[in-house]
Design goal:
This protein is mainly alpha-helical. The chain is built from five helices and no strands.
Length: about 70
Amino acid sequence: MIRTMTPAERAGKNLKNLIKVSEFKTQEKFAEAMYVDPVTVRRWIAHGISNINTIQEIADIFEVDFMEFLK
């Protein structure tokens, strides 16, 4: 059975890719910009981002559309 990713899980996957190609380059540097612990960023990437406000904040930082971030 193939399980599809939830929007929260897709947001986590997209975050990982955006960090790699951004000026941040590392999860640690991105965590600094978000004022969160690097463990939080790792958790978002591994388990998804369920808080809609957090998703919007991240989309704003990367200058991507909120809905595109969830695709």
